[in-house]
Amino acid sequence: MGQKKLIKFAAIKEYENVLEYPQGMPGKWNSFFENLAIGPYPISLDDLAVVKSHTPTQTPVKPLTLELACGRGEYAVGLARMFPDQNFLGLDVKGNRIWKGASIANKEVIKNVAFVRTQIEQAIQYFSKEEVNEIWITFPDPQLRLSKAKKRLTHPQFLRLYQQFLKPGGSVHLKTDSPNLFEFTMAVIKLFDLTLVKQSEDIYGEQNIDPRCAIKTYYEGLNIAGSNRIHYIEFKIDKELPKAKDEILKEIIAAFEVTETHDAKRERGIKPIN
Predict the structure, then answer these.
(1) What's the domain range around 156?
(2) 141 catalytic, yes or no?
(3) Domain total for the chain?
(4) Selection from 94, 113, 132 nearest residue 17 by Cα
(5) Dihedrals φ, ψ of 3, to 5°?
(6) List 46, 85, 92, 141, catalytic entry
């Protein structure tokens, strides 16, 4: 591991706004952010109050939004700046990337955003039922190969995971430069009859763009897919997701055209930019 990565890993271990594989957090995020705002004393996770947001409570519960596979966390930080009365949490397994967003938040004293270092597959361990209001997935690896389709963050296997902690009516937002991931996600929405709120094959071409969609990330600037357009989808996971339909989905996506993104570039020997 490079010296710079070691320095960043050491730094986030001291950051109050970064948790690495935390235990016993379901229902505690509202309390965590309340303590983070008070600072600068160390936060005892064991002493945080549990608030079940799906049951009546006198404790004010601020909306919680997740950015999954957040990378450098630009989206989580950008949303936190826009909505100071809401809480935002970025999840990613790469601590050296999380360091960037966490450092910006610390420098600007933004207390309504934090980060968790973990795998997305383990997300259910950190949230209670209906604790999350919205999910943003910004420029994830599109996992082009059919054999890796289940790793796509809008695959029904992941949607079933999100459904366990997302509030009824809560939205999932996807921004991607990959036409394949866009078409794949649209296929999932159609197959499972999910509610489509908005779709755009060129979100920056919209006349009245949602300010939340105007946030730009480091990876967006790289335009790895070479598509020169940013695709956007907002949808709700408001139906059952029978596993039997996963096989039908596999047949549908087998016909998708493979375009120039992460895996395609690797196959041609071009090293992805990290």
Answers:
(1) 3-267
(2) yes
(3) 1
(4) 113
(5) -60, -40
(6) 141
